[in-house]
Amino acid sequence: MRFLEEDEELNPIVSAVNLVDVFLVIIAALLIALAQNPLNVFTEDDVTVVKNAGKPNMEVIVKKGKEIKKYQANGEIGSGEGLRAGVAYKMADGSFIYVPESVPEEGVPEGEQAQGE
Known about the structure:
Blueprint: H1 12-35, E1 47-51, E2 59-64, E3 67-72, E4 86-90, E5 96-100, H2 110-116
């Protein structure tokens, strides 16, 4: 029965048990942080994350379902492919008006069509 009367401060197993408890708390905190991450691959949510918005090194991360795509800015403003679709005007009251451009008739250059009307 001398074993039961032994002082707990001298027993090295007690400190090892305390370390296991500390590691279990750390692991639980990490799992909770992983589950709350918006880019979690285990959820089906659609998420868009913008990093460094408005700066030359801006990144956009888009997650649709389980697919994650990363887009990186090249530093050029307004670059890309496309056609001009119209003009937007800001009014005095703060509202915007969009005016689509007319489609030119066949055989008539765009500049001459405006003169004929």
